[in-house]
Queue: 3 jobs
Job 1
Amino acid sequence: MIHLTTLKLTSNTIQVVYIDTENKFSAERVVEIGECRNIEKSLLKDLAEKIIILKPSCSKQLLQILKDLETTMIKNKV
């Protein structure tokens, strides 16, 4: 499930980590949701480019991603 919250959206400060456990991430869907919430298209494009998608293929990988999440966030300035 993709969830966009109301944030002060500026293309310089937004970074998102999305853990896709079902392999169903859709950048197009992010844009659709943003458009329904009246977020500017240019800002949505910037946001879509800043989504870090992690796709674990098993529970062991998911646990490792969660264990390393803080490091990943710091490394990517999330």
Note: Residues 11 and 42 are 9 Å apart (CA to CA).
Job 2
Amino acid sequence: MSSSDFGSQPFYISRRRFEELVAEALQQRPRDAQLHGARIHYLQRLARKSEARARLRKARELGVDSAELRRLARRLGGE
């Protein structure tokens, strides 16, 4: 497979690895709204809503805000 073929191939990682990667990225960039949003959206999709709400509260405690986080909050029940 050449490097030009890589972009057309599906890329899969385990749930555990995804969570590890996001956690590591958030350690380096704790106020990154996109990273928080990705984590919260992921948890929501897995029906882990209480954990998603807790992560949303944590993001807010850090002063993180974005339109995406506000949208996710509405979907999680008005957090």
Note: The mean pLDDT is 89.
Job 3
Amino acid sequence: MKWFSTLFLYSFPFGFCIRAWDCYLADGRDFIFRLALAICKMYEKELIKYEIQEANDFFNAFLGKDTFDDEVSTATSST
């Protein structure tokens, strides 16, 4: 998944990337894994229905949502 291997830079809104990188630099590489897990957990009910390619398409479709920053902020605060 490109969004994980590039530490989210090419796949997510700029504001989200700034926050993610700030936390990564402060907390280290474990943060990236926690963040990826939080994103997967947020969409667990949808993702469980999909095959790998469909899950990839799902991620590609939601990345531009305006509400994504708020959703991830809420999810990561509980992990």
Note: The chain has six helices and no strands.
